[in-house]
Amino acid sequence: MKTSLGRRGLIPTPTIVFLMIVFLMGVTSGCTKPVKLVPVEGIVEIGGQPAEGIVVQFLPQASDGEKRPTSFATTGSGGTFRLSTYDGKLGAVEGTHNVLLADTLEERPAQGSRAVKPPRLDSRYATMSGGLTATVSEGGEPIRVQVPTAKP
To answer: What share of the chain is helix, strand, coil (3-state, %, to 5)?
Structure first.
């Protein structure tokens, strides 16, 4: 092992520094468990009709304190969606999820102005207290998320 002697004692060479960094990266990279994702497809219906332009977000319920990735999608024509994580991996973790919905097509008038068309979704579905849940399981059927039309 090559070192050089400086005023403060032994100074490691660039090779030693590089090997120390690689070692520390290897030690710290094993600190998180990889999670298994399963493919998830589904449909969002508002008042019994397929809803296009709805952002669907699945937030895993974790009772063990482990962090699990959130999955999301935006519904296409026919109200269908396919979930992926924020880092681009397809699917969601198995288990129970809180489901949040937000309407990308909702009219948002200027402050003080009235909306011309009423919202399709009740705003509570965009929060954790909205009461929507879904269970993700490997090989499961497509998930159907059904909510009533928002009351004006």
So the answer is: 15, 35, 45
In the beta sheet, which residues pair with residue 58?
71, 99
Residue 71 near residue 52 (C-beta atoms within 8 A): no
Helix (H) / strand (E) containing 82: strand 80-82
* Whole-Å CA distances, 55 to 20, 22, 77, 100, 128: 45, 40, 13, 8, 14
The Cα angle at residue 71 between residues 69 and 72, in degrees rounded to 5: 155
- H/E stretch holding 146: strand 143-147
Supply the pTM of this predicted model: 0.74
pLDDT digits (tens, 9 = 90+) for 60-84: 997 777 788 999 999 999 999 999 9
Q: Are 51 and 79 in contact (CB under 8 A)?
A: yes
Tokens (6 digits) for 77:
């024509």
**Cα–Cα distance measured from residue 133 to residue 130, given in angstroms and rounded to the nearest whole number:** 9
Q: Which two tokens stand for residue 71?
A: 């999955």
Judging by DSSP bridges, how do beta strands 95-103 and 37-38 pair with one another? unpaired
- Residue 23 parent element (H or E): helix 14-29
Residue 55 tokens, joined: 């952002």
The answer to whether 46 and 147 have CB atoms below 8 angstroms apart is yes
